[in-house]
Write a structure and sequence with these properties.
The chain is mostly beta strands. It has a single domain, classed as Jelly Rolls (Sandwich). The protein is about 5% helix and about 40% strand. The strands form three sheets. It has a six-stranded antiparallel sheet with strand order 1-2-10-7-12-5, with no helix packed on it. It has a five-stranded antiparallel sheet with strand order 9-8-11-6-13, with no helix packed on it. Strands 3-4 form a two-stranded antiparallel ribbon. β1 and β2 form a beta hairpin. The longest helix has 6 residues.
């Protein structure tokens, strides 16, 4: 695997290195030892699968406050998504920045998000499926979010955002959000 840092501190694009022949290809897409050696949280407490029916749909931007803050490893297993990480950690050198990458089922590239960052994505195809590992279990009372159309973030969604849930429409801007405290 190749680990490529992104504009958000601690966010990394994880590229498998497929080996193939006339039957197809094989690639390792997760290795706890390699993740740890690259400074990434290798723990997996939960694995989630989400299907999004219509292209343009935006989910997020979500995060959990400590002690339930979670690292995530997100990949698209069907169709394509535009995956976004927002640095909402006030102590971070990249606070207030975002990075977005297109993930598709064809190449198995994944986005690693460090604990404390907000995450969301837009389906680029009908029926897109995102599979993501999380280092902490979902904890509803610790869940928070940031509005996908926060004008200060100015996220450049590839398609006009649509099909936003009522819950996500009600999320605050980054400035108004309850943010994670710095780790001890």
């Amino acid at each position: 695997m190749r680990f490529e840092p992104l504009e958000v501190d601690g966010a990394v694009l994880v590229r498998p290195e497929p080996r193939g022949d006339d039957r197809g290809w094989f690639a390792r897409v997760f290795c706890a030892e390699e993740f740890a050696a690259n400074g990434l949280e290798p723990g997996v407490a939960q694995v989630n699968l989400a299907t999004t029916v219509e292209a343009g749909t935006v989910r997020g931007l979500h995060y959990q406050l400590p002690p339930a803050a979670e690292a995530k490893l997100v990949r698209c297993v069907d169709g394509a998504i535009f995956d976004v990480v927002v640095d909402n950690r006030p102590w971070s050198p990249t606070f207030g920045r975002w990075a977005g990458v297109e993930l598709g089922a064809e190449d198995a590239v994944a986005l690693y998000l460090p604990p404390g960052c907000a995450h969301g994505y837009q389906a680029l195809t009908d029926g897109a499926r995102a599979l993501y590992q999380a280092s902490a279990p979902y904890t509803p009372e610790r869940e928070r979010g940031i509005h996908h159309a926060d004008p200060e973030l100015a996220i450049a969604w590839p398609l006009p955002p649509r099909n936003i849930s009522d819950k996500d429409r009600a999320l605050p801007t980054l400035r108004a959000a309850e943010l994670p405290a710095a780790p001890a």
